[in-house]
Write a structure and sequence with these properties.
Elements lengths: L1 H27 L5 E10 L9 E6 L4 E3 L2 E2 L5 E7 L8 E7 L4 E7 L2 H5 L3 E3 L2 E3 L18 H12 L11 H4 L9 H12 L13
Parallel strand pairs: 1-8, 1-9
Antiparallel strand pairs: 1-5, 2-3, 2-6, 4-5, 6-7
């Protein structure tokens, strides 16, 4: 009987050792999970920043990730994996248009790592409040040409012929984002100077 008990204990210990070894092997060979950081870059007035300069650095590891952008879009993305990023890592995101820039620091959470690796971070570049409200072209003063430029800019987004010299000045109707309504307001403001109904209201 004693011998039988010893054999049973030996078998149980062997099973435990094999189980532990199997678990360790499974953990060691567990494949990495994807991590997809992405978002859109806009100005504070809602205008898209096309082909933005975006840099993402892991402050815990000093690794810079390869950021992909497109000349006709304000979208950016980074595709990496859990081999290069972990829960608790602090990421510094920087976006610029070569003149103005913004920088954020965010911490990767366990949800970010397990929710399909999706990590959405939209970036907003604050525009300097300079110039005259409504004067968004290359000519001094607010004229109907400014209104026309806004119409063309909205109709043909990304066309360099209709680029706004001062996007802040183009968002003049008191509502976020540049639309054809801003161009219409400038036409009315120039046509009926001093009429409070057509006052230009760029963000302070």
């Amino acid at each position: 009987m004693v011998r039988g008990k010893k054999e049973s204990i030996a078998v149980m210990l062997a099973v435990l050792v094999i189980s532990a070894a199997t678990a360790m092997t499974a953990t060691a060979t567990e494949p990495p999970t994807p991590f997809h950081a992405y978002g859109w870059v806009k100005y504070s007035n809602g205008t898209e920043v096309l082909n933005p300069n975006v840099k993402i650095t892991n402050l815990n590891t000093s690794e810079d990730y390869t950021v992909k952008t497109n000349a006709s879009s304000n979208y950016y993305q980074v595709i990496t994996s859990s081999c290069n990023i972990s829960e608790g890592d602090v990421l510094r995101l920087n976006a610029s248009d070569c003149v103005n820039s913004v920088s954020y620091e965010v911490t990767v959470t366990s949800e970010n790592m397990t929710d399909g690796g999706l990590f959405e971070q939209n970036l907003t570049i604050l525009l300097p409040q300079v110039g005259i409200c409504g004067d968004c072209d290359a000519f001094p003063g607010v004229t109907t040409n400014d209104g026309w430029l806004i119409f063309m800019n909205v109709t043909f987004p990304g066309d360099p012929r209709y680029a706004l010299v001062n996007p802040w000045a183009a968002d003049c109707d008191g509502f976020e984002g540049i639309t054809t309504n801003d161009g219409w307001l400038i036409f009315m403001n120039v046509t009926f100077p001093g009429d409070p109904r057509y006052a230009l209201q760029c963000a302070p």
